[in-house]
Design a protein that fits this description.
Helix content is 47%, strand content 8%. It has a seven-stranded parallel sheet. It has a seven-stranded parallel sheet with strand order 10-11-9-12-13-8-14, sandwiched between helices. The termini are close together. It binds adenosine-5'-triphosphate. Adenosine-5'-triphosphate binds at residues 82, 84-86, 89, 106, 108-114, 259, 384, 386, 410, 414-415.
Length: 878
């Protein structure tokens, strides 16, 4: 991706063209043309400003050009086929044009994106913002996909303006973005990455920002971005929060948009908005908060029947474009992998927060352009994403709350198209959910799904699990993550953990039984002594980690700053999962929630309290455990048996000695002895024990660190037996010690002088040998190091080339690579063209200038190309 400095000599010059004189044209006439053009633009701007200030909304607005907008924006809208503003656009655009801060909310798919993009463009245009004026507007999106989508829309409608725009969404080394940021007028960014730049990019000037947009503000808050947003706002021109008792109007205008209103939103509004106007197109009771052209259904289905129901639904809707929402990424993968093997006859795709960014973008793109397909996803795709022509939204798992429900169903019936939504509720969830819907005046029709229409997958699922351990493993984890997600749900009137048929559910997934699950409170109750401290520390560390992610992450807890560091390739994830403590939910698992005793699994095989070590030992690759760990596993099994006997010593690291009171005499010696014992245990040696003395430390007590230390080479050398170097007689084959012992020498040399000489000779020889050994060892070490470096370099190269595919995060709206505004004079538009467009323009110039309508035609034909280009630019392959 090439980025060339715009060569405009003055920021305002672009508005009139720079008058440098094109090739073959005399400079003087060109200068005049430019001056005339500049004057014309100035006049238009003046007139536009007056229209904005004096604009009185008519009773009804049917066309965009009835709004006080510049001809460039109107042209951009027209060429993108936007002719009639939606209600939120009609209300929000005029207010925003007057410089008013806004809190806008409107139902999903109602066109909120244009409601802020249009005023953003107009504001910069009215301010005569030019390429060299630096950053003028920032749009903050909660997810990368949404940022890309917004960027594409900006490209479309802003193509007749002369602004450079960039995407800052992470996934690339900071340095690469840093170099380009200075040239951007408009940034579409995710919060974590933007904050990183604001904090660390020298010369990234943000104080001149005129318009700040917080899109999908409720989602931003859900993902824990409030601290990041606070910090970002602090970087921009002094805002409301930073002012004293009498807030001064900031230079910046802030527009905050959301599909749903939450309490937290009010807090964010207070923090970021100055005397805002509230525009709410979600008037409950009038139009309702969900699109009117959406048909909503729900069905009550036992948890164990959900997969069968989904299968039956898919098989009877093979010509649909549908989205299936489930709670966790593990479920997404399990359903995707199993359904894929069953060949449903409909293209299957899946999307969740743990996929690589490039994968996510390409699935997003692929699904967008598919006519018939089924996308299985988590709530990562619930908000803001504008997939065209989705017929069905199926919520296989009950949404966390009504807002999530609204966002999920909002992926269909967008703008004026129709759509259907089907929510599957467990019997225990029905009443609670009905109450929640009622509160928001949402009417969802109940339907009954015939048994005959359902699939019967149990047998096939069992076969998969039996034949492919990976599937079984995935199923177990999907089961656990679902159960945990229900367990930590806040709304206990909807989510009743204890009423879930765990065994039957596991069976429906082909699992031999319900996997065991560990819960926070139980774990806490069982920890003892020093272990308690450790676990508390671990929990604190986890929280710190989460907090860190909350601020720096770009797309939420799993998703998102540097998300790429957390992102796992699926296969990688599969392999690495064992090493990780994982999020229970794909995005918003509440790790703080604790179990109540009534929430234990209701099945017969109700799990005992289990620790992370339990999970570690149940990994699929147990066979590769070291003998020591294997011993611990069997020890654990013993303990399980004990548990049945009422013994609740269920933790792996159990102290053999419970009485910690030591006599003064005992203390020092015991500890030293035990340290030695510890080393011996680790080295697999027997320890001589005084039976009367109770052991202080048993092998089970070894912490991972101690174990490692004890089994290290150094420790073995220090504490292990002395090695022997033997040499063999070539003729007799008999061996003898290479280094002769004192006794040997004494018998060999009677004369002390001779003995001394011999010893001296030997000592010298040993020194030489030692040097040689050292050299050999060093060479070996260097060789290993070289190989490692080579491997790292290869991996880096692989990563880099992946990254290149993945994409450069910054691109221009219209592409500004040319940077030469001399072209401006030949065209009506004063924007700088994209490379592809430049080729088209050259062709056009050859064929003489074409009227707007053809332009629109041209653009219509190339809309897809433009999107593809945006994505390519993102992916760095353009
Ligand atoms: N004035 C308009 N005329 C025609 N189509 C429009 C108009 N405004 C928006 N759209 C289209 O409607 C769809 C939904 O728009 P948009 O994504 O902005 O909705 P939204 O309100 O932001 O939804 P969500 O809350 O789900 O993010 C998009 O495909 C967009 O192109």
């Amino acid at each position: 991706m090439a980025f060339v400095d715009n060569k405009a000599s003055s920021s305002k010059s672009s508005y009139g063209g720079k008058g440098k004189g094109g090739k073959g044209k005399p400079a003087q006439p060109r200068l005049k043309t430019n001056q005339a053009k500049r004057l014309k633009i100035d006049e238009e701007l003046k007139e536009l400003q007056t229209r904005v200030e004096t604009w009185v909304p008519p009773a009804e607005i049917t066309l965009f050009n009835e709004l006080p907008l510049s001809s460039r924006t109107i042209k951009g809208l027209k060429s993108s086929h936007f002719l009639n503003p939606t209600p939120i656009q009609q209300l929000a655009i005029p207010s925003a044009l007057r410089g008013q801060d806004l809190l806008g909310s409107a139902k999903t798919g109602s066109g909120k994106t244009l409601a802020f993009l249009i005023p953003l463009l107009e504001r910069l245009y009215l301010d005569k913002w030019g390429p060299m004026d630096g950053l003028g507007a920032v749009v903050i999106s909660p997810t990368r996909e949404l940022a890309v989508q917004t960027f594409n829309q900006l490209r479309d409608i802003g193509k007749y303006h002369n602004f450079s725009a960039g995407l800052v969404i992470g996934g690339k080394p900071l340095k690469e973005e840093q170099d380009r940021l200075g040239r951007m007028n408009i940034l579409i960014a995710t919060p974590g990455r933007l904050l990183q730049h604001l904090d660390s990019t020298v010369g990234f000037e943000s104080s001149g920002v005129k318009v700040l947009v917080l899109d999908e503000a409720d989602r931003l808050l859900d993902l824990g971005f409030l601290p990041a947003l606070r910090a970002i706002i602090g970087h921009f021109s002094p805002g409301v929060a930073s002012s004293s008792s009498t807030p001064t109007k900031p230079n910046r205008q802030t527009l905050l948009f959301s599909a749903t209103q939450t309490k937290d939103l009010a807090a964010l509004a207070k923090l970021s908005l100055y005397q805002p106007e509230y525009i709410n197109c979600n008037k409950a009771g009038e139009e309702g908060v969900v699109p009117s052209n959406l048909e909503q259904y729900y069905a009550v289905v036992g948890l164990e029947k959900k997969l069968d129901t989904l299968w039956g639904f898919v098989k009877s809707h093979l010509k649909m474009k549908g989205i299936v929402f489930v709670t966790s990424g593990k479920q997404v993968r399990f359903i995707f992998e199993t359904f894929r093997r069953l060949h449903p006859g409909l293209p299957l795709m899946h999307l969740h927060g743990k996929q690589k960014q490039a994968t996510r973008l390409s699935i997003f793109q692929k699904y967008s352009t598919s006519k018939h397909a089924l996308l299985i996803c988590t709530d990562v795709a619930a908000r803001g994403l504008d997939f065209p022509a989705v017929d069905w939204v199926i919520q296989l798992d009950c949404p966390d709350d009504v807002d999530t429900y609204i966002h999920r169903i909002g992926r269909t019936a967008r703008y004026q198209s129709g759509g259907h939504a089907l929510t599957l509720l467990c019997p225990s969830e029905e009443q609670g959910m009905l109450d929640r819907w009622k509160e928001k005046l949402i009417e969802v029709k109940k339907i009954k799904i015939k048994e005959s229409k359902m699939g019967n997958l149990k047998q096939q699922m069992q076969n998969f699990a039996f034949r492919e351990p990976e599937i079984k493993y995935l199923g177990q984890r999907a089961f656990i993550s679902y159960m945990k997600s229900i367990h930590i749900q806040k709304d206990k009137s909807v989510f009743k953990f204890s009423e879930l048929p765990a065994e039957a559910f596991a069976e429906s997934m082909g699992l031999p039984g319900a996997p065991q699950i560990k819960f926070a409170e139980q774990k806490a109750a069982k920890v003892r002594g020093g272990e308690k401290k450790n676990e508390q520390k671990e929990a604190e560390e986890e929280k710190e980690e989460l907090a860190k992610i909350g601020v720096l992450d770009v797309v939420g807890s799993d998703e998102d700053s540097d998300e790429d560091e957390e992102e796992e390739d699926e296969e990688e994830e599969e392999a690495q999962d064992d090493e990780e403590e994982e999020d229970d939910k794909d995005e918003s698992g509440d790790s703080d929630s604790e179990a109540s005793s009534e929430d234990r699994l209701p099945s017969k095989s109700a799990p005992a309290v289990r620790t992370k070590y339990d999970r570690m030992f149940e990994r699929k690759n147990q066979s590769i455990l070291t003998p020591h760990y294997t011993a611990l596993v069997s020890h654990e099994n013993d303990k399980d048996e004990n548990e049945d006997d009422g013994d609740d010593n269920d933790d792996v690291f159990t102290l053999a000695r419970k009485d910690h009171a030591l006599s003064d005499n005992e203390k020092g010696s015991d500890i030293e002895d035990d340290d030695e014992d510890l080393v011996k245990i680790a080295q697999g040696k027997d320890i001589e024990r005084d039976d009367s003395k109770e052991p202080l430390i048993s092998s089970e007590d070894l912490s991972k660190r101690k174990l490692k230390a004890a089994t290290s080479k150094r420790s073995k050398l220090k504490n292990g037996p002395l090695g022997e170097k033997l040499i063999f007689d070539e003729n007799t084959g008999e061996s003898r010690n290479f280094y002769e012992t004192g006794k040997d020498i004494e018998t060999k040399f009677n004369d002390p002088k001779e003995r001394k000489e011999f010893l001296e000779k030997q000592r010298k020889q040993m020194l030489v040998d030692n040097e040689i050994d050292k050299k050999v060892a060093k060479e070996k070490k260097n060789e290993l190091k070289r190989k490692r470096k080579e491997r790292e370099r290869e991996m880096r190269q692989e990563y880099m080339s992946d990254d290149d595919e993945e994409g450069g995060p910054v691109a221009y709206i219209g592409g500004s690579d040319q940077g030469d505004y001399s072209d401006v004079d030949d065209r009506e538009s004063i924007r700088s063209p994209a490379p592809e467009e430049e080729v088209r323009n050259k062709k056009k110039r050859k064929n003489k200038f074409k009227p707007d309508v053809n332009d629109a035609e041209d653009n219509r034909g190339n809309m897809e190309d433009d999107e593809a280009l945006a994505l390519k630019l993102l992916q760095g392959s353009a």
